[in-house]
Write a structure and sequence with these properties.
The chain has 343 residues and is α/β, with parallel strands linked by helices. It folds into two domains: 140 residues, 3-Layer(aba) Sandwich (Rossmann fold), CATH 3.40.50.2300; 141 residues, Rossmann fold, CATH 3.40.50. It is 43% helix and 18% strand. It contains 14 helices and 13 strands. The strands form three sheets. Strands 1, 2, 3, 4, 5 and 6 form a six-stranded mixed β-sheet that branches. The protein has a four-stranded parallel β-sheet with strand order 8-7-9-10. A hairpin with a 6-residue loop joins strand 1 and strand 2. Helix 3 packs parallel to helix 4 and helix 7 runs parallel beside helix 9. The longest helix is centred in the first third of the chain and has 20 residues. 47% of the residues are buried. Keywords: Signal.
Length: 343
Amino acid sequence: MKKNKLWLSLSLSALLLTAVGCGDKPDTSSGSTDEGSNEQSYSIAISQYVEHPSLDATREGILAALKDNGITEDDNLKVDMNNAQADPTNNLSIGQKLKNTDADLVLAIATPSAIVVKKNVTDKPVLFAAVTDPVDAKLVSDLKQPGGNVSGASDTNPEATKQLMTFIHDHFPEIKTVGLIINEGEANAVVMSKTAEEALSELGMTLIKAPVTNTSEVKQAAESLVGKADAFFITLDNNVVSGVDTIIQTAKENQIPFFSSDRDTVEKGAIATVGFKYFDHGYQVGLMAVEVLKNGKQPAEMEVTFPDKLDLILNVKAAADYGITISDDMKQEVKDPENNIIE
């Protein structure tokens, strides 16, 4: 009888241990479950190359898309934010740090950050944003089928630069030479400058370059173009965009029309661009992040996306500061005047 009782006790203990062992396990494939609750929690790491309005808006768009899909910072989302402040050494250190990250997903904002993150983070999903040419930067070899652990969204449509050059040609016949301040160490800038140069050549115009190696040289580069260029132009060049205030100042002092490649710079004081909202671009990447975190989708199977809502964006007040009146003909080229004509 005692032997039977002992056997029964051991069996119940075994069943209890088995039940505990087979209980609810955190889903470690995408996020984890908070102890004591059923709510899924997530962690992401962000590497951003520098602070400027376009990249900041991209980051805000990413976080907004996550929030709209139930993944909210300081609630069920932990964010490890890293900013290189446009310093290549800082950028490299961030990449090496993220090599050992335990985040569920790594997001890289701007080409320099994406290149370093890809090199260091090989065992986690990686999504990039604000990258002009992902193939040229060797982030992916195939835009439709990236393979590996990296995908994301490009922030350029090759047609945008061509359309802006055509707008300058059509509405500013006195402009024959366009001065470009450029950091030729940044892949984004090189790709876009080639597009601009080819487009201007077809229009019978010339591109003049003023090279810089960092943001502190931007003012001097802009001043070097005075007397040589009829207009200023910049690409999605992070070092140059970071120093755009000095370009605007130089352009206004010398009444030289200034055109940019991003909406945020137009809002700050450039006359026009052909582009989109960087917040929307970030939101696009944020939706991809939702697919990775909540649905377990892998970057290898996620096609690289591009902005598809290009529009002419005009700053009427900024134009007046350069002594230029935005004509009705210019305004008629804007598809969404309510949002893209800045008074």
